[in-house]
Backbone:
Protein backbone atom coordinates (compact mmCIF):
# COMPACT_ATOMS: atom_id res chain seq x y z
CA UNK A 1 0.00 0.00 0.00
CA UNK A 2 1.46 3.38 -0.87
CA UNK A 3 1.44 6.33 1.46
CA UNK A 4 -1.67 8.02 0.12
CA UNK A 5 -3.66 4.82 0.32
CA UNK A 6 -2.54 4.29 3.90
CA UNK A 7 -3.70 7.79 4.77
CA UNK A 8 -7.04 7.20 3.05
CA UNK A 9 -7.64 4.20 5.29
CA UNK A 10 -6.10 5.57 8.45
CA UNK A 11 -7.87 8.93 8.57
CA UNK A 12 -10.96 8.49 6.45
CA UNK A 13 -11.56 4.77 6.76
CA UNK A 14 -11.89 4.10 3.02
CA UNK A 15 -10.24 1.27 1.12
CA UNK A 16 -10.27 2.63 -2.39
CA UNK A 17 -10.08 5.91 -4.18
CA UNK A 18 -13.02 6.96 -6.23
CA UNK A 19 -12.92 7.98 -9.87
CA UNK A 20 -10.53 10.87 -10.46
CA UNK A 21 -9.21 11.12 -6.93
CA UNK A 22 -5.93 9.32 -7.47
CA UNK A 23 -5.07 11.28 -10.63
CA UNK A 24 -5.74 14.55 -8.85
CA UNK A 25 -3.70 13.59 -5.79
CA UNK A 26 -0.76 12.34 -7.86
CA UNK A 27 -0.73 15.50 -9.91
CA UNK A 28 -0.66 17.69 -6.82
CA UNK A 29 2.05 15.57 -5.23
CA UNK A 30 4.11 16.05 -8.41
CA UNK A 31 3.93 19.77 -7.87
CA UNK A 32 1.68 20.37 -10.88
CA UNK A 33 -1.20 22.83 -10.70
CA UNK A 34 -4.44 20.90 -10.71
CA UNK A 35 -8.11 21.51 -11.45
CA UNK A 36 -10.74 19.01 -10.38
CA UNK A 37 -14.26 19.32 -11.79
CA UNK A 38 -16.41 16.73 -10.09
CA UNK A 39 -20.07 16.69 -9.05
CA UNK A 40 -21.22 17.27 -5.51
CA UNK A 41 -20.53 14.30 -3.29
CA UNK A 42 -17.83 12.90 -5.58
CA UNK A 43 -15.21 13.40 -2.89
CA UNK A 44 -13.24 16.49 -3.83
CA UNK A 45 -12.11 17.34 -0.29
CA UNK A 46 -9.77 14.42 0.22
CA UNK A 47 -8.06 15.27 -3.08
CA UNK A 48 -6.43 18.24 -1.39
CA UNK A 49 -6.53 16.96 2.17
CA UNK A 50 -4.40 13.87 1.53
CA UNK A 51 -1.61 15.78 -0.28
CA UNK A 52 -1.79 18.39 2.49
CA UNK A 53 -1.01 15.66 5.01
CA UNK A 54 1.94 14.49 2.92
CA UNK A 55 3.53 17.87 2.22
CA UNK A 56 6.17 19.29 4.52
CA UNK A 57 4.63 22.73 4.81
CA UNK A 58 1.15 24.00 5.53
CA UNK A 59 -1.78 24.01 3.11
CA UNK A 60 -4.08 27.01 2.85
CA UNK A 61 -7.59 26.17 1.71
CA UNK A 62 -9.71 29.04 0.46
CA UNK A 63 -13.41 28.59 0.84
CA UNK A 64 -16.24 31.08 0.31
CA UNK A 65 -18.49 30.33 3.24
CA UNK A 66 -18.08 30.17 6.97
CA UNK A 67 -20.44 27.23 7.30
CA UNK A 68 -18.45 25.20 4.76
CA UNK A 69 -15.20 25.87 6.57
CA UNK A 70 -16.67 24.99 9.92
CA UNK A 71 -18.06 21.74 8.61
CA UNK A 72 -14.84 20.65 6.94
CA UNK A 73 -12.69 21.55 9.90
CA UNK A 74 -15.01 19.64 12.26
CA UNK A 75 -14.82 16.63 9.95
CA UNK A 76 -11.01 16.80 9.86
CA UNK A 77 -10.75 17.15 13.62
CA UNK A 78 -13.10 14.20 14.04
CA UNK A 79 -10.81 12.18 11.80
CA UNK A 80 -7.84 13.13 13.97
CA UNK A 81 -6.32 15.75 11.66
CA UNK A 82 -5.29 19.10 13.10
CA UNK A 83 -6.95 21.87 11.15
CA UNK A 84 -8.44 25.27 11.86
CA UNK A 85 -10.27 28.09 10.14
CA UNK A 86 -9.62 31.79 10.06
CA UNK A 87 -12.68 33.87 9.33
CA UNK A 88 -14.99 36.51 10.71
CA UNK A 89 -16.86 34.06 12.94
CA UNK A 90 -13.90 34.14 15.37
CA UNK A 91 -13.54 36.82 18.02
CA UNK A 92 -10.39 38.94 17.81
CA UNK A 93 -8.88 36.87 20.58
CA UNK A 94 -9.74 33.53 19.01
CA UNK A 95 -8.35 34.75 15.72
CA UNK A 96 -5.08 35.82 17.30
CA UNK A 97 -4.76 32.46 19.03
CA UNK A 98 -5.56 30.47 15.90
CA UNK A 99 -2.97 32.43 13.95
CA UNK A 100 -0.48 31.91 16.76
CA UNK A 101 -1.00 28.11 16.64
CA UNK A 102 -0.74 28.21 12.86
CA UNK A 103 2.62 29.96 13.14
CA UNK A 104 3.78 27.32 15.59
CA UNK A 105 3.02 24.71 12.97
CA UNK A 106 0.24 22.96 14.87
CA UNK A 107 -2.00 22.68 11.82
CA UNK A 108 -1.35 20.96 8.51
CA UNK A 109 -4.41 22.59 6.95
CA UNK A 110 -5.94 25.97 7.53
CA UNK A 111 -9.15 27.24 5.96
CA UNK A 112 -9.16 30.94 5.17
CA UNK A 113 -11.85 33.28 3.86
CA UNK A 114 -10.58 35.03 0.70
CA UNK A 115 -10.97 38.53 2.12
CA UNK A 116 -8.58 37.61 4.97
CA UNK A 117 -5.70 36.70 2.69
CA UNK A 118 -4.28 40.14 2.12
CA UNK A 119 -4.88 41.53 5.60
CA UNK A 120 -1.79 42.69 7.43
CA UNK A 121 -1.70 40.07 10.19
CA UNK A 122 -2.38 37.17 7.86
CA UNK A 123 0.30 38.31 5.43
CA UNK A 124 2.75 38.67 8.26
CA UNK A 125 2.26 34.96 8.92
CA UNK A 126 2.16 33.89 5.28
CA UNK A 127 5.32 35.66 4.20
CA UNK A 128 7.32 33.81 6.83
CA UNK A 129 5.70 30.40 6.58
CA UNK A 130 6.44 27.36 4.50
CA UNK A 131 3.30 27.21 2.38
CA UNK A 132 3.19 24.01 0.37
CA UNK A 133 -0.13 24.45 -1.40
CA UNK A 134 -2.94 26.89 -1.90
CA UNK A 135 -6.13 25.02 -2.58
CA UNK A 136 -9.23 26.80 -3.84
CA UNK A 137 -12.55 25.21 -3.07
CA UNK A 138 -15.66 26.29 -5.02
CA UNK A 139 -13.26 27.71 -7.58
CA UNK A 140 -16.09 28.78 -9.91
CA UNK A 141 -16.56 31.77 -7.57
CA UNK A 142 -13.72 33.52 -9.46
CA UNK A 143 -15.77 33.59 -12.62
CA UNK A 144 -18.26 36.26 -13.50
CA UNK A 145 -19.97 33.80 -15.81
CA UNK A 146 -21.24 31.65 -13.00
CA UNK A 147 -24.08 32.37 -10.62
CA UNK A 148 -21.85 32.59 -7.54
CA UNK A 149 -19.24 35.18 -8.48
CA UNK A 150 -17.38 36.55 -5.46
CA UNK A 151 -15.20 39.59 -6.02
CA UNK A 152 -13.13 38.65 -2.94
CA UNK A 153 -11.94 35.56 -4.85
CA UNK A 154 -9.92 37.90 -7.05
CA UNK A 155 -7.73 38.63 -4.05
CA UNK A 156 -6.32 35.12 -4.25
CA UNK A 157 -3.89 36.02 -7.02
CA UNK A 158 -2.85 39.19 -5.27
CA UNK A 159 -2.03 37.02 -2.26
CA UNK A 160 -0.10 34.36 -4.18
CA UNK A 161 1.92 37.04 -5.96
CA UNK A 162 3.16 38.34 -2.66
CA UNK A 163 4.51 34.97 -1.48
CA UNK A 164 8.28 34.50 -1.65
CA UNK A 165 7.86 31.08 -3.25
CA UNK A 166 4.92 30.10 -5.45
CA UNK A 167 3.19 27.08 -3.92
CA UNK A 168 1.39 24.45 -5.98
CA UNK A 169 -2.17 25.55 -6.69
CA UNK A 170 -5.14 23.25 -6.80
CA UNK A 171 -8.70 24.26 -7.56
CA UNK A 172 -11.99 22.38 -7.25
CA UNK A 173 -15.55 22.94 -8.35
CA UNK A 174 -18.74 21.08 -9.16
CA UNK A 175 -20.08 23.61 -11.64
CA UNK A 176 -18.09 24.30 -14.71
CA UNK A 177 -19.24 25.26 -18.11
CA UNK A 178 -16.47 25.81 -20.62
CA UNK A 179 -16.39 29.54 -19.90
CA UNK A 180 -16.15 29.00 -16.17
CA UNK A 181 -13.43 26.39 -16.59
CA UNK A 182 -11.35 28.71 -18.78
CA UNK A 183 -11.90 31.55 -16.36
CA UNK A 184 -10.64 29.46 -13.45
CA UNK A 185 -7.48 28.54 -15.34
CA UNK A 186 -6.89 32.11 -16.59
CA UNK A 187 -7.77 34.10 -13.51
CA UNK A 188 -5.96 31.80 -11.09
CA UNK A 189 -3.13 31.61 -13.64
CA UNK A 190 -2.81 27.86 -13.32
CA UNK A 191 0.37 26.65 -14.99
CA UNK A 192 -0.23 23.82 -17.46
CA UNK A 193 -2.67 22.32 -15.04
CA UNK A 194 -3.84 18.74 -14.87
CA UNK A 195 -7.59 18.94 -15.42
CA UNK A 196 -9.80 16.10 -14.28
CA UNK A 197 -13.47 16.14 -15.23
CA UNK A 198 -15.55 13.20 -14.11
CA UNK A 199 -18.87 14.25 -15.62
CA UNK A 200 -21.94 15.69 -13.95
CA UNK A 201 -23.95 12.55 -13.39
CA UNK A 202 -24.94 11.74 -9.83
CA UNK A 203 -25.75 8.07 -10.03
CA UNK A 204 -27.17 7.76 -6.53
CA UNK A 205 -29.90 10.31 -7.20
CA UNK A 206 -33.21 9.27 -8.69
CA UNK A 207 -35.28 11.88 -10.51
CA UNK A 208 -39.02 12.19 -10.74
CA UNK A 209 -41.59 14.68 -11.98
CA UNK A 210 -45.15 14.59 -10.74
CA UNK A 211 -48.14 16.79 -11.53
CA UNK A 212 -50.34 16.26 -8.49
CA UNK A 213 -53.70 17.90 -7.97
CA UNK A 214 -52.87 18.48 -4.35
CA UNK A 215 -49.20 19.23 -3.87
CA UNK A 216 -49.43 19.53 -0.12
CA UNK A 217 -51.06 16.12 0.26
CA UNK A 218 -48.36 14.59 -1.93
CA UNK A 219 -45.62 16.05 0.24
CA UNK A 220 -47.34 15.08 3.45
CA UNK A 221 -47.79 11.52 2.31
CA UNK A 222 -44.20 11.30 1.18
CA UNK A 223 -42.97 12.45 4.56
CA UNK A 224 -45.19 9.99 6.40
CA UNK A 225 -43.89 7.18 4.17
CA UNK A 226 -40.31 8.26 4.75
CA UNK A 227 -40.47 9.08 8.39
CA UNK A 228 -37.10 9.66 10.08
CA UNK A 229 -35.47 10.78 6.88
CA UNK A 230 -33.89 14.16 6.40
CA UNK A 231 -34.94 16.24 3.41
CA UNK A 232 -35.43 19.68 1.90
CA UNK A 233 -38.63 21.06 0.39
CA UNK A 234 -37.92 23.98 -1.92
CA UNK A 235 -40.69 26.50 -2.63
CA UNK A 236 -40.69 29.44 -5.04
CA UNK A 237 -41.87 32.11 -2.61
CA UNK A 238 -41.61 32.96 1.07
CA UNK A 239 -45.37 32.79 1.34
CA UNK A 240 -45.47 29.18 0.16
CA UNK A 241 -42.63 28.32 2.56
CA UNK A 242 -44.66 29.75 5.43
CA UNK A 243 -47.81 27.87 4.43
CA UNK A 244 -46.20 24.49 3.86
CA UNK A 245 -44.06 24.72 6.98
CA UNK A 246 -46.98 25.73 9.18
CA UNK A 247 -49.20 22.92 7.91
CA UNK A 248 -46.54 20.27 8.38
CA UNK A 249 -45.74 21.59 11.82
CA UNK A 250 -49.39 21.44 12.80
CA UNK A 251 -49.36 17.77 11.83
CA UNK A 252 -46.44 17.10 14.13
CA UNK A 253 -43.68 16.87 11.51
CA UNK A 254 -40.25 17.99 12.84
CA UNK A 255 -39.85 20.79 10.35
CA UNK A 256 -38.15 24.18 10.15
CA UNK A 257 -38.00 26.98 7.58
CA UNK A 258 -35.57 29.30 5.84
CA UNK A 259 -36.00 32.34 3.61
CA UNK A 260 -34.60 35.81 3.21
CA UNK A 261 -37.45 37.39 5.16
CA UNK A 262 -36.38 35.89 8.48
CA UNK A 263 -34.01 37.55 10.94
CA UNK A 264 -30.34 36.57 10.77
CA UNK A 265 -30.63 34.93 14.17
CA UNK A 266 -33.59 32.79 13.17
CA UNK A 267 -31.94 31.73 9.93
CA UNK A 268 -28.82 30.60 11.77
CA UNK A 269 -30.86 28.74 14.36
CA UNK A 270 -33.10 27.00 11.83
CA UNK A 271 -30.15 26.00 9.68
CA UNK A 272 -28.44 24.46 12.70
CA UNK A 273 -31.60 22.64 13.77
CA UNK A 274 -31.62 21.08 10.34
CA UNK A 275 -27.92 20.23 10.17
CA UNK A 276 -27.89 18.69 13.63
CA UNK A 277 -31.00 16.64 12.76
CA UNK A 278 -33.05 18.27 15.52
CA UNK A 279 -35.46 19.28 12.75
CA UNK A 280 -34.61 16.93 9.89
CA UNK A 281 -37.00 18.56 7.41
CA UNK A 282 -36.35 21.99 5.97
CA UNK A 283 -38.88 24.04 3.99
CA UNK A 284 -37.06 26.84 2.21
CA UNK A 285 -36.72 29.19 -0.71
CA UNK A 286 -33.64 29.01 -2.89
CA UNK A 287 -31.92 31.31 -0.36
CA UNK A 288 -31.15 28.11 1.51
CA UNK A 289 -28.43 25.68 0.69
CA UNK A 290 -25.22 27.32 -0.41
CA UNK A 291 -22.59 26.01 1.92
CA UNK A 292 -24.71 23.20 3.31
CA UNK A 293 -22.52 20.13 3.51
CA UNK A 294 -25.09 17.92 5.28
CA UNK A 295 -24.37 14.53 3.83
CA UNK A 296 -27.50 12.59 4.82
CA UNK A 297 -30.16 14.59 2.97
CA UNK A 298 -32.25 11.71 1.60
CA UNK A 299 -34.73 13.69 -0.50
CA UNK A 300 -35.15 17.08 -2.13
CA UNK A 301 -38.71 17.88 -3.14
CA UNK A 302 -39.38 20.90 -5.30
CA UNK A 303 -42.83 22.12 -4.35
CA UNK A 304 -42.60 24.40 -7.37
CA UNK A 305 -40.67 24.23 -10.59
CA UNK A 306 -37.53 26.40 -10.28
CA UNK A 307 -36.46 28.97 -12.85
CA UNK A 308 -33.90 26.94 -14.76
CA UNK A 309 -32.11 23.61 -14.96
CA UNK A 310 -28.93 25.06 -13.41
CA UNK A 311 -30.83 25.97 -10.24
CA UNK A 312 -32.74 22.71 -10.25
CA UNK A 313 -29.66 20.52 -10.49
CA UNK A 314 -27.82 22.54 -7.88
CA UNK A 315 -30.71 22.40 -5.41
CA UNK A 316 -31.70 18.80 -6.08
CA UNK A 317 -28.00 17.93 -5.89
CA UNK A 318 -28.01 18.70 -2.17
CA UNK A 319 -29.49 15.25 -1.73
CA UNK A 320 -27.22 12.26 -1.23
CA UNK A 321 -23.80 13.81 -0.74
CA UNK A 322 -22.82 10.62 1.06
CA UNK A 323 -23.37 8.60 -2.10
CA UNK A 324 -26.41 6.79 -0.72
CA UNK A 325 -29.57 6.47 -2.84
CA UNK A 326 -31.65 9.64 -2.57
CA UNK A 327 -34.71 11.04 -4.30
CA UNK A 328 -35.21 14.29 -6.20
CA UNK A 329 -38.86 14.97 -6.91
CA UNK A 330 -40.28 17.92 -8.77
CA UNK A 331 -43.97 18.75 -8.30
CA UNK A 332 -45.08 20.62 -11.37
CA UNK A 333 -48.04 22.98 -11.51
CA UNK A 334 -49.01 25.35 -14.33
CA UNK A 335 -48.91 28.31 -11.94
CA UNK A 336 -45.15 27.74 -11.44
CA UNK A 337 -44.49 28.90 -14.99
CA UNK A 338 -46.52 32.05 -14.42
CA UNK A 339 -44.72 32.87 -11.16
CA UNK A 340 -41.31 32.36 -12.76
CA UNK A 341 -42.33 34.52 -15.71
CA UNK A 342 -43.32 37.22 -13.27
CA UNK A 343 -39.93 37.03 -11.55
CA UNK A 344 -38.14 37.33 -14.87
CA UNK A 345 -40.22 40.24 -16.12
CA UNK A 346 -39.86 42.12 -12.87
CA UNK A 347 -36.22 41.38 -12.31
CA UNK A 348 -34.53 44.73 -12.18
CA UNK A 349 -31.83 43.59 -9.75
CA UNK A 350 -29.04 44.34 -12.13
CA UNK A 351 -29.14 48.09 -11.93
CA UNK A 352 -25.81 48.49 -13.62
CA UNK A 353 -27.06 46.82 -16.82
CA UNK A 354 -28.12 49.03 -19.70
CA UNK A 355 -31.54 48.44 -21.19
CA UNK A 356 -30.29 46.44 -24.17
CA UNK A 357 -28.27 44.07 -21.97
CA UNK A 358 -31.20 43.75 -19.60
CA UNK A 359 -33.40 42.78 -22.52
CA UNK A 360 -30.90 40.10 -23.54
CA UNK A 361 -30.66 38.80 -19.98
CA UNK A 362 -34.43 38.50 -19.77
CA UNK A 363 -34.55 36.76 -23.10
CA UNK A 364 -31.94 34.26 -21.94
CA UNK A 365 -33.85 33.72 -18.70
CA UNK A 366 -37.08 33.05 -20.57
CA UNK A 367 -35.26 30.57 -22.74
CA UNK A 368 -33.89 28.78 -19.69
CA UNK A 369 -37.34 28.71 -18.15
CA UNK A 370 -38.69 27.06 -21.27
CA UNK A 371 -36.09 24.32 -21.08
CA UNK A 372 -36.97 23.80 -17.43
CA UNK A 373 -40.64 23.52 -18.37
CA UNK A 374 -39.86 20.93 -21.04
CA UNK A 375 -38.12 18.87 -18.36
CA UNK A 376 -41.51 18.56 -16.67
CA UNK A 377 -43.15 17.34 -19.85
CA UNK A 378 -40.63 15.16 -21.56
CA UNK A 379 -41.33 11.45 -21.64
CA UNK A 380 -37.68 10.68 -22.21
CA UNK A 381 -35.10 9.87 -19.52
CA UNK A 382 -34.94 12.79 -17.07
CA UNK A 383 -31.30 12.25 -16.16
CA UNK A 384 -30.36 12.24 -19.80
CA UNK A 385 -32.33 15.46 -20.32
CA UNK A 386 -30.34 17.20 -17.57
CA UNK A 387 -26.97 15.87 -18.70
CA UNK A 388 -27.63 16.90 -22.29
CA UNK A 389 -28.52 20.35 -21.08
CA UNK A 390 -25.01 20.54 -19.64
CA UNK A 391 -23.54 19.25 -22.87
CA UNK A 392 -22.93 15.67 -21.86
CA UNK A 393 -24.25 12.82 -23.96
CA UNK A 394 -25.12 9.60 -22.29
CA UNK A 395 -27.55 6.79 -22.83
CA UNK A 396 -31.21 7.73 -23.00
CA UNK A 397 -32.16 5.15 -20.42
CA UNK A 398 -30.97 5.41 -16.82
CA UNK A 399 -33.46 3.08 -15.17
CA UNK A 400 -33.58 5.41 -12.17
CA UNK A 401 -35.97 8.21 -13.07
CA UNK A 402 -39.76 8.42 -13.21
CA UNK A 403 -39.77 8.25 -16.99
CA UNK A 404 -37.47 5.26 -17.26
CA UNK A 405 -39.67 3.56 -14.67
CA UNK A 406 -42.96 4.36 -16.34
CA UNK A 407 -44.48 2.04 -18.87
CA UNK A 408 -45.29 4.01 -21.95
CA UNK A 409 -47.21 3.04 -25.00
CA UNK A 410 -46.80 4.57 -28.40
CA UNK A 411 -49.84 6.40 -29.63
CA UNK A 412 -50.73 7.88 -32.96
CA UNK A 413 -51.71 11.45 -32.09
CA UNK A 414 -51.86 12.77 -35.65
CA UNK A 415 -55.56 13.68 -35.39
CA UNK A 416 -55.06 15.62 -32.21
CA UNK A 417 -52.02 17.33 -33.72
CA UNK A 418 -53.95 18.36 -36.83
CA UNK A 419 -56.65 20.05 -34.77
CA UNK A 420 -54.13 21.81 -32.55
CA UNK A 421 -52.04 23.04 -35.47
CA UNK A 422 -55.19 23.97 -37.41
CA UNK A 423 -56.45 26.01 -34.50
CA UNK A 424 -53.12 27.84 -34.25
CA UNK A 425 -53.06 28.50 -37.97
CA UNK A 426 -56.65 29.69 -38.25
CA UNK A 427 -56.24 32.08 -35.33
CA UNK A 428 -53.22 33.59 -37.12
CA UNK A 429 -50.68 32.39 -34.52
CA UNK A 430 -51.71 35.16 -32.14
CA UNK A 431 -52.20 33.16 -28.94
CA UNK A 432 -50.37 31.20 -26.30
CA UNK A 433 -50.75 27.54 -25.39
CA UNK A 434 -53.51 28.12 -22.84
CA UNK A 435 -55.91 29.74 -25.28
CA UNK A 436 -55.32 27.06 -27.91
CA UNK A 437 -55.99 24.24 -25.46
CA UNK A 438 -59.11 25.91 -24.08
CA UNK A 439 -60.39 26.45 -27.60
CA UNK A 440 -60.00 22.91 -28.92
CA UNK A 441 -61.28 21.53 -25.64
CA UNK A 442 -64.30 23.81 -25.96
CA UNK A 443 -64.02 25.49 -22.60
CA UNK A 444 -66.65 28.12 -22.11
CA UNK A 445 -64.52 30.95 -20.84
CA UNK A 446 -65.06 34.69 -20.92
CA UNK A 447 -61.49 35.03 -22.15
CA UNK A 448 -62.22 32.92 -25.23
CA UNK A 449 -65.29 34.96 -26.01
CA UNK A 450 -63.26 38.11 -25.79
CA UNK A 451 -60.87 36.72 -28.40
CA UNK A 452 -63.87 35.30 -30.29
CA UNK A 453 -62.16 31.93 -30.22
CA UNK A 454 -65.53 30.34 -29.47
CA UNK A 455 -66.26 31.05 -33.13
CA UNK A 456 -63.09 29.32 -34.31
CA UNK A 457 -63.72 26.30 -36.54
CA UNK A 458 -61.78 24.08 -34.12
CA UNK A 459 -63.69 25.18 -31.02
CA UNK A 460 -64.62 22.06 -29.07
CA UNK A 461 -63.21 19.73 -31.74
CA UNK A 462 -61.18 17.84 -29.12
CA UNK A 463 -63.68 18.01 -26.26
CA UNK A 464 -63.28 14.25 -25.73
CA UNK A 465 -59.50 14.51 -25.07
CA UNK A 466 -58.35 15.51 -21.60
CA UNK A 467 -56.60 18.83 -21.10
CA UNK A 468 -53.65 16.90 -19.66
CA UNK A 469 -53.17 14.95 -22.89
CA UNK A 470 -53.72 18.05 -25.02
CA UNK A 471 -50.94 19.79 -23.16
CA UNK A 472 -48.67 16.79 -23.55
CA UNK A 473 -49.25 16.65 -27.29
CA UNK A 474 -48.71 20.39 -27.64
CA UNK A 475 -45.44 20.13 -25.71
CA UNK A 476 -44.40 17.19 -27.84
CA UNK A 477 -45.00 19.28 -30.97
CA UNK A 478 -42.76 21.98 -29.53
CA UNK A 479 -40.05 19.50 -28.51
CA UNK A 480 -40.10 17.99 -32.01
CA UNK A 481 -39.97 21.44 -33.59
CA UNK A 482 -43.32 21.50 -35.34
CA UNK A 483 -44.08 24.49 -33.18
CA UNK A 484 -42.05 27.10 -31.39
CA UNK A 485 -42.74 29.50 -28.59
CA UNK A 486 -41.87 33.14 -29.04
CA UNK A 487 -39.45 34.55 -26.57
CA UNK A 488 -41.38 37.41 -25.07
CA UNK A 489 -43.38 38.27 -22.04
CA UNK A 490 -46.43 36.32 -23.21
CA UNK A 491 -45.12 33.43 -25.24
CA UNK A 492 -47.13 32.88 -28.40
CA UNK A 493 -47.15 29.51 -30.05
CA UNK A 494 -46.31 29.52 -33.76
CA UNK A 495 -45.90 27.02 -36.57
CA UNK A 496 -42.60 26.00 -38.10
CA UNK A 497 -42.33 24.80 -41.70
CA UNK A 498 -42.41 21.19 -40.51
CA UNK A 499 -45.94 21.72 -39.23
CA UNK A 500 -47.22 22.07 -42.79
CA UNK A 501 -46.35 18.43 -43.48
CA UNK A 502 -48.71 17.37 -40.74
CA UNK A 503 -51.45 19.75 -41.81
CA UNK A 504 -51.23 18.49 -45.36
CA UNK A 505 -51.64 14.94 -44.12
CA UNK A 506 -48.14 13.85 -45.15
CA UNK A 507 -46.90 13.01 -41.75
CA UNK A 508 -48.02 10.96 -38.79
CA UNK A 509 -47.19 11.95 -35.24
CA UNK A 510 -46.35 9.16 -32.84
CA UNK A 511 -45.61 9.87 -29.24
CA UNK A 512 -45.04 8.01 -26.00
CA UNK A 513 -47.81 8.33 -23.45
CA UNK A 514 -47.83 6.84 -19.99
CA UNK A 515 -49.96 3.72 -19.69
CA UNK A 516 -52.99 4.54 -17.55
CA UNK A 517 -50.82 7.10 -15.77
CA UNK A 518 -49.82 4.35 -13.41
CA UNK A 519 -46.20 4.52 -12.43
CA UNK A 520 -44.31 1.29 -12.15
CA UNK A 521 -41.92 3.42 -10.15
CA UNK A 522 -44.06 2.90 -7.08
CA UNK A 523 -43.24 -0.79 -6.89
CA UNK A 524 -39.67 -0.49 -7.96
CA UNK A 525 -38.87 2.45 -5.74
CA UNK A 526 -35.15 2.71 -5.89
CA UNK A 527 -34.19 4.62 -2.83
CA UNK A 528 -35.15 3.15 0.43
CA UNK A 529 -34.65 4.19 3.94
CA UNK A 530 -32.21 2.22 5.96
CA UNK A 531 -35.14 0.97 7.97
CA UNK A 532 -36.36 -2.26 6.49
CA UNK A 533 -34.16 -1.69 3.52
CA UNK A 534 -34.04 -4.65 1.24
CA UNK A 535 -32.11 -3.89 -1.89
CA UNK A 536 -29.57 -6.21 -3.31
CA UNK A 537 -26.58 -4.15 -2.31
CA UNK A 538 -27.42 -4.23 1.32
CA UNK A 539 -29.53 -7.24 2.11
CA UNK A 540 -32.01 -6.84 4.91
CA UNK A 541 -31.09 -4.33 7.56
CA UNK A 542 -31.73 -4.98 11.20
CA UNK A 543 -34.03 -2.06 11.97
CA UNK A 544 -33.65 -2.27 15.71
CA UNK A 545 -29.87 -2.20 15.56
CA UNK A 546 -29.89 0.69 13.09
CA UNK A 547 -32.02 2.71 15.51
CA UNK A 548 -29.68 1.92 18.40
CA UNK A 549 -26.59 2.90 16.43
CA UNK A 550 -28.27 6.05 15.26
CA UNK A 551 -29.10 7.00 18.83
CA UNK A 552 -25.53 6.39 19.87
CA UNK A 553 -24.37 8.57 16.99
CA UNK A 554 -26.67 11.39 18.14
CA UNK A 555 -25.39 11.05 21.69
CA UNK A 556 -21.77 11.32 20.55
CA UNK A 557 -22.60 14.21 18.20
CA UNK A 558 -24.02 16.10 21.16
CA UNK A 559 -20.96 15.44 23.29
CA UNK A 560 -18.64 16.50 20.49
CA UNK A 561 -20.83 19.40 19.40
CA UNK A 562 -20.76 18.36 15.76
CA UNK A 563 -23.54 17.30 13.37
CA UNK A 564 -24.28 13.56 13.54
CA UNK A 565 -23.17 12.89 9.94
CA UNK A 566 -19.68 14.06 10.85
CA UNK A 567 -19.38 11.31 13.47
CA UNK A 568 -20.32 8.59 10.97
CA UNK A 569 -22.22 8.79 7.69
CA UNK A 570 -25.51 6.93 7.19
CA UNK A 571 -23.65 4.63 4.85
CA UNK A 572 -21.21 3.66 7.59
CA UNK A 573 -24.08 3.00 10.03
CA UNK A 574 -25.76 0.75 7.48
CA UNK A 575 -22.55 -1.17 6.93
CA UNK A 576 -22.11 -1.54 10.68
CA UNK A 577 -25.61 -3.01 10.83
CA UNK A 578 -24.65 -5.64 8.32
CA UNK A 579 -21.15 -6.50 9.34
CA UNK A 580 -22.06 -6.38 13.05
CA UNK A 581 -18.41 -6.15 14.03
CA UNK A 582 -17.57 -7.24 17.57
CA UNK A 583 -13.80 -6.82 17.36
CA UNK A 584 -11.78 -3.67 16.68
CA UNK A 585 -10.27 -5.29 13.63
CA UNK A 586 -13.65 -6.09 12.15
CA UNK A 587 -14.91 -2.61 12.84
CA UNK A 588 -11.91 -1.05 11.12
CA UNK A 589 -12.78 -2.97 7.98
CA UNK A 590 -16.06 -1.06 7.70
CA UNK A 591 -15.99 1.77 5.14
CA UNK A 592 -15.81 5.15 6.85
CA UNK A 593 -14.17 3.88 10.05
CA UNK A 594 -10.62 5.24 10.35
CA UNK A 595 -8.09 4.52 13.05
CA UNK A 596 -8.78 7.69 15.00
CA UNK A 597 -12.55 7.22 15.13
CA UNK A 598 -12.08 3.58 16.01
CA UNK A 599 -9.97 4.50 19.02
CA UNK A 600 -12.41 7.15 20.05
CA UNK A 601 -15.77 5.47 19.54
CA UNK A 602 -15.08 1.84 18.61
CA UNK A 603 -15.75 0.43 22.02
CA UNK A 604 -19.12 2.13 22.36
CA UNK A 605 -20.38 0.98 18.98
CA UNK A 606 -19.10 -2.55 19.51
CA UNK A 607 -20.79 -2.53 22.91
CA UNK A 608 -24.18 -1.76 21.35
CA UNK A 609 -23.70 -4.38 18.63
CA UNK A 610 -22.78 -7.06 21.17
CA UNK A 611 -25.78 -6.25 23.36
CA UNK A 612 -28.06 -6.39 20.36
CA UNK A 613 -26.79 -9.83 19.42
CA UNK A 614 -28.17 -11.35 22.58
P1 LIG B 1 -17.58 17.00 -2.61
O1 LIG B 1 -16.75 18.06 -1.94
O2 LIG B 1 -17.02 16.54 -3.90
O3 LIG B 1 -19.02 17.39 -2.71
P2 LIG B 1 -16.94 15.48 -0.29
O4 LIG B 1 -15.50 15.71 -0.32
O5 LIG B 1 -17.76 16.21 0.73
O6 LIG B 1 -17.59 15.71 -1.71
O7 LIG B 1 -17.20 13.91 -0.14
C1 LIG B 1 -18.49 13.36 -0.17
C2 LIG B 1 -18.55 12.11 0.68
O8 LIG B 1 -17.83 11.05 0.06
C3 LIG B 1 -17.93 12.30 2.05
O9 LIG B 1 -18.78 11.65 2.99
C4 LIG B 1 -16.59 11.61 1.93
O10 LIG B 1 -16.12 11.15 3.17
C5 LIG B 1 -16.93 10.46 0.99
N1 LIG B 1 -15.76 9.95 0.26
C6 LIG B 1 -14.76 10.67 -0.31
N2 LIG B 1 -13.85 9.86 -0.87
C7 LIG B 1 -14.27 8.59 -0.69
C8 LIG B 1 -13.76 7.29 -1.05
N3 LIG B 1 -12.61 7.15 -1.73
N4 LIG B 1 -14.48 6.21 -0.68
C9 LIG B 1 -15.64 6.34 0.00
N5 LIG B 1 -16.16 7.52 0.38
C10 LIG B 1 -15.51 8.65 0.04
ZN1 LIG C 1 -33.94 7.82 -16.75
Residues:
Amino acid sequence: MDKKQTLLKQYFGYDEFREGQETLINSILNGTDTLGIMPTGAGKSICFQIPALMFEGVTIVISPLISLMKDQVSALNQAGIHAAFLNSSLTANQYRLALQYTKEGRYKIIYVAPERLVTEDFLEFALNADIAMVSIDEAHCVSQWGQDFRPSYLKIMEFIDKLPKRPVISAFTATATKEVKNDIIDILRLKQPTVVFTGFDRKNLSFAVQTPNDKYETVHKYIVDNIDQSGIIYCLTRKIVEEVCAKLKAEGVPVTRYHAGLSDAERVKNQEDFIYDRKPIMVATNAFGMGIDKSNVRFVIHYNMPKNIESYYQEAGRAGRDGEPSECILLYGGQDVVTNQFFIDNNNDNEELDSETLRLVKERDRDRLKKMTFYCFTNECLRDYILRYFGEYGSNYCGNCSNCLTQFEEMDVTDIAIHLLGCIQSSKQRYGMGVIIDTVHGNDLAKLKKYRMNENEHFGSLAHVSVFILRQVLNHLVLKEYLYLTNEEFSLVKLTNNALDILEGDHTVIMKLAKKQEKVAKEKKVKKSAKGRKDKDYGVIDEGLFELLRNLRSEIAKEEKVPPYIVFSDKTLIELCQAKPVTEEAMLAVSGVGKFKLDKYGERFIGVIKLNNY
About this structure: The pocket of zinc ion (ligand 2) is lined by residues 381-383, 398, 401, 403-404 (CB under 6 Å). The longest strand covers residues 510-519. Residues 517-537 have pLDDT under 50 and may be disordered.
